[in-house]
Sequence to fold (300 residues):
Amino acid sequence: MIISNDMTLESLVPACSLRLEHVFKNYLQNIPSLELKEAMQYTLMNGGKRLRPLLIFATGSIFAAPLENLDVPATSVELIHTYSLIHDDLPCMDNADLRRGKPTCHKEYSEGMAVLTGDALHTLAMQILANHPAQLKAERRVQMMSVLSKACGPYGMAAGQALDITVMHDDAIPTRLLEDIYRLKTGALLSACIELGWLASSDDDLANQEALKEFGDYIGLAFQIQDDILDMEATTEALGKEQGIDNKNNKITYPKLHGIANSKLKVQTLYQQALEAINYLGHHAHLLRELTHYMLQRNK
Fold:
């Protein structure tokens, strides 16, 4: 089964969530530690926009990737993303009390259990990439593991988070370095989603892969700058997490360096560049364009 050409984003969103939750429930059944199972379930089923899996499904639809193939990277990425949020919220990182409108994992359980929950979600992601049933060739699975591990490890998200807690308090931080940190800590995983969606298909045109990578790089940077803007402008209720936490933690952000107006202009420019990169794909990429517009207009 594939995503039909006439499917809308409005119908894709609930379908994506249902498919993710079906896979998650299967893997959560027989975990020996009840508290670990509950903590994993608490964080995975705690709402969220599911933007990263949606990017995978929307990209895969361009190349008629089977849904069961897309389930593999989509669930894996959501596991990685959730683990990163759990660790990011810890007292030793951002020290956040709320996530998606509910107490963070370490507040609901304990710091130790939160660390272990993140560890478990991270490794489960690789297990699913390696073994979850799908019509994926072994070569494609290995490529997916390479793309995802690079995006979330010492060449991606982990490096970005390390720089976040070591250099993002410096008022003199250059804009280029700040953008590089954003690309690592947020952009790398978002960009990986686009490539993973392509890898779930049978398309092997490297020109498509390159265009999608360009698209992913633009939206990854735009997404983090937009997050900074929302942290300053949106309410705690809308965000589902504490508003102004960057300011509370004395972090230097793009809006602090360049102002809100210039930051919004930068986001618009980046999103426009992203759309131009995939313009040649025509109607086949309509879901990816719809999702891009939704991301641009989000308020949380």
Observations:
- The beta strands are 98-99, 102-103.
- The longest helix spans residues 206-233.
